[in-house]
Amino acid sequence: MHPVLTQVGTTTSFLSPPIDKAISMATMIEARGLTKRYEPAGNERRRFRRRSETTETTGTLAVDGVDFDVEEGELFVIMGLSGSGKSTLLRMLNRLVDPTSGSLHIAGQDMLAMDDAQLRTTRNSTINMVFQHFALFPHRTVLENAAYGLQVRGIPEAERVERAQDALETVGLGRWGHVRPQELSGGMRQRVGLARALATDAQILLMDEPFSALDPLIRRDMQSLLLSLQEKVRKTVVFVTHDLNEAMRLGQRIMVMRDGRVIQLASGAEILSTPADDYVANFVSDVDRSRVVTVEHVMRPPLITARGDEHPQAVLDRMANVEGGGVYVVDERDRIIGVATDKHLADGIALHQERIDSLVCDDFTTIEIGSRLIEVMPLVGRHSVPLAVTDHDGRLIGVIPRAALLNTLADNGRSLNA
Amino acid sequence: MPNLHIGDAVSAIVTWLQENVAGVFDAIAAITQWLLDVVLVALTGPPPLVIVVIAALLALWARGIGFAVFTVLGLLVVESMQLWTETMETLAIVLVASVIAVVIGIPTGIWAARSKRASVVVRPVLDFMQTLPVFVYLIPAVFLFGIGVVPAVVATFIFAIPPGVRLTELGLRQVDPEMVEASVAFGATPWQLLRQVQLPLAVPSIMAGLNQVIMMALSMVVIAGMVGAGGLGAVVVQGISRLDIAVGFEGGLAVVFLAIFLDRLTSAFPRPRRRAVAVADEAPEAVAVQAVPRVA
Ligand SMILES: Nc1ncnc2c1ncn2[C@@H]1O[C@H](COP(=O)(O)OP(=O)(O)OP(=O)(O)O)[C@@H](O)[C@H]1O
Ligand SMILES: [Mg+2]
After folding, report:
1. Do A180 and B192 touch (CB under 8 A)?
2. Atom 10 (ligand 1) nearest CA
3. pLDDT digits 0-9 by tens, A317-376
4. In Å, what is the CA distance from A244 to each residue of A78, A256, B295?
5. How many CB atoms lie within 10 A of CB B3?
6. In this predicted structure, what is the pLDDT of residue A415?
7. Average pLDDT of the residues of chain B
8. Extents of the domains making up chain B
């Protein structure tokens, strides 16, 4: 509908690729100016209604000109208070709610130009949904529920049972296929809801407050399940919640909405450190930072490292210039071989060792990039070297001294921008 | 006030129908008669004892031993009152009229549930059908289909169809919107939505409708007797016209038995097929959680 806008949007996302993930990504969802105005109910109905505050002639502007992109494999969170238009926005993405205006591309296809048949195909095999109150079919078994999307697609029974069973196993319900959903607890029901969406192999999952009907402990389990699923199957997820801690825990990027508009779209850490306005600031004031901030924001490059083929004397000489009793020994690709402590180096020199790789010990701990500070806290300060931060291939990219960690947690987040 | 000749107009319409589309009504009459004959042969062909056994088995399957015993006793009483053939005739009328009412009523209910406009049109028609005194459409029915059992079936059908339509529509409209949304969100066609989700979830309501259809049909038997439909209606009418208390009472008793039997039988089916197994909340949750690797 707005070709010019669309053009601009695409270009922008190419010019400024997201920084936090190094994987090459395509834009899965591209929304421009998405708007929904609910018209007031028809006259014949309104005549009988006494309380008519909501039925002004203008209707309700539930979503008002929202732009955003979601990249492939991203877990994108939409957050806002009740009535801010989250559900409406989410339902516009698969056109359960038809936008009043704007443009929407899903996996490169113009969603608003589709006819009914194309729309059904897209809903069935590209963009699935998980519901707040689970929306499981009570007249079907758990397995039949999980197989629903495949049945709609017309997959033969044998194959659909097999794929649904796989999906149930993925969510840990492999043994529960034969029961009815009513017989399961809330957390288990939502696992079925998740399995139903996983079984179709759709790339995009829309989740409308999927865990808000669950009690807190189960909710955490479900968040963990979702995160671990993301590691394995990498869906593009749009996740609606009004719980900020949940948003911070799950979301790579978080879009904060109020009254149908986007107030801020940023990573959790950015929202914490630079809230766009008082509304957001209020929202984030009681968040536990250690659950949000990731190690990248705290680490610094190691002051010195050593190679395995270096002479112990040379390494010891360099260590003399910095504090600390040890040094990380890395191979030619920066992967950690071990730690050489000053004592071991001195012993090695006394024994006329030529290379330090025979002297290393494993007196160190590593953590992967992307981990939250809460996971780091018990690990720092245990060894002669600071905690090592590695990338996904095990390469040393930084260290976290205990002081830096304590500083960050004490300092109300200001050091996050450094 | 102008003098509106609505009655004359209706009369003219009936006359016009009689003269111009008699073929259609003859066809309807022939099909209905044929259906009745088939059902009647099935009910009165075998010896009564066979029917008693079949009815008892149905009762046993639907509700259990108590209902089966009641059924056997009831049918034996009917047989001993020498009203077997009349009861079976009435049963045939009720069954045929109900089947037609269901075959037409359920699709109409579906249509009304899917389209607001249809619902607006259908509702007053149903109200009209239900509240118009039965004799009023019995007369045109006789004109169009002649004296006998066919106009009785047609009048019974018209009288009995409204709850079938209403409860089908209601059942479909009451399906949880989230279920409908889930089905649509997975790409279901309108037909798949209806067949896989809405109709199964509306079954209890539709079955309640079926039960009411049959009860309404049964309540028409006496009136049906007045247009020469035979059956228990004729027995009761005979009792009334001759002021014969014994005959009237026996006919009435057979009707009551049929009513109880059909009501109990058809209201047995909305009940859940499987007993829900009580599952403790924590145990399965723990199992399920363990099966999934946690992210640290
Ligand atoms: N079908 C509808 N018809 C008319 N107005 C609607 C409809 N659905 C939602 N609205 C209105 O649109 C606005 C946004 O609603 P929406 O459900 O999208 O908010 P939400 O952020 O999902 O809220 P919640 O957290 O309560 O689910 C609200 O003012 C709501 O009253
Ligand atoms: Mg909502």
Report:
1. no
2. A62
3. 888 877 778 889 988 888 888 888 888 888 888 888 888 888 888 888 888 888 888 888
4. 10, 10, 20
5. 4
6. 39
7. 84
8. 7-45+81-291
- pLDDT, tens digit, 9 for 90 and up, residues B171-219: 999 999 999 999 999 999 999 999 999 999 999 999 999 999 999 898 8
Question: Does any ligand 1 atom lie closer than 6 A to the CB of residue A36?
Answer: no
- The residue count for chain A: 418
Nearest CA-CA distance, residue A332 and chain B, Å: 30
A73 lines ligand 1 (CB under 6 A): no
Measured at the CA of A336, the angle between CA A334 and CA A337, to 5 degrees, comes to 120
Instruction: Point out the residue among B201, B284, B293 whose CB comes nearest to the CB of A188.
Output: B284
User: According to CATH, where is 3.10.580.10 located in chain A?
Assistant: 4-16+297-410
Range with the poorest average pLDDT among A7-21, A258-272, B73-87, B143-157:
A7-21
Interface check for B219 against chain A (CB to CB < 8 A): the answer is no
Residue A73's region, left for phi above 0, alpha for psi from -120 to 50, else beta, is left
Distance from CA of A152 to the nearest CA of B (A): 6
Does residue B146 carry a pLDDT above 60? yes
The sign of the dihedral angle between the CA atoms of B34, B36, B37, B43 is positive
* Shortest distance, CA B276 to any CA of chain A (angstroms): 7
| d(CA B194, ligand 2 centre) in Å | 26
Closest Cα to residue A179, out of B276, B20, B245?
A: B276
Between helices A186-199 and A157-170, what is the axis angle to 10°?
130
Band (B281; pLDDT cuts 50, 70, 90): very low
What does chain B look like in DSSP terms, one character per residue? Answer: -----HHHHHHHHHHHHHHHSHHHHHHHHHHHHHHHHHHHHHHHSS-HHHHHHHHHHHHHHHT-HHHHHHHHHHHHHHHHTT-HHHHHHHHHHHHHHHHHHHHHHHHHHHHHHH-HHHHHHHHHHHHHHHHS-HHHHHHHHHHHH-SSHHHHHHHHHHHHHHHHHHHHHHHHHTS-HHHHHHHHHTT--HHHIIIIIIHHHHHHHHHHHHHHHHHHHHTTHHHHHHTT--HHHHHHHHHHHTT-HHHHHHHHHHHHHHHHHHHHHHTTTTS-SSPPPP--SHHHHHHHHHHSPPP-
pLDDT band for position A411 (cuts 50, 70, 90): low
> Taking phi first (over 0 means left), then psi (-120 to 50 degrees means alpha), and beta for anything else, what does residue A395 get?
beta
Q: Which of B181, B187, B296 sits opposite A124 (nearest CB)?
A: B187
pLDDT in tens, A288-302: 777 777 888 788 888
Interface contact B283, partner A, CB < 8 A? no
Could you give the angle at the alpha carbon of B87 between the alpha carbons of B166 and B50, nearest 5°?
105
pLDDT at B270: 60
Cβ neighbors of B240 (< 8 A, separation 6 or more) are: B248
Report the atom number in ligand 1 closest to the C-alpha of A36. Answer: 12
Between the CA of A269 and the centroid of ligand 1 the distance, in Å, is 28
Task: State the CB neighbour count (10 A cutoff) for residue A344.
Answer: 22
pLDDT, residue A25, reads: 62
**Does the C-beta of A88 come closer than 6 Å to ligand 1?**
yes
In CATH, the number for domain A4-16+297-410 is 3.10.580.10
Residue B287 has, within 13 A of its CA and on its CB side, a CA count of 14
- Please state the CATH superfamily assignment of the domain spanning residues B7-45+81-291 in this structure: MetI-like (1.10.3720.10)
pTM of the model: 0.73
Task: Out of 1.10.10.10, 3.90.105.20, 1.10.510.10, 3.40.50.300, select the CATH number for domain A21-126+202-293.
Answer: 3.40.50.300
Q: At what angle do helices B84-114 and B231-241 cross, to 10 degrees?
A: 120
Q: How far is the CA of A89 from the centre of ligand 2 (A)?
A: 9
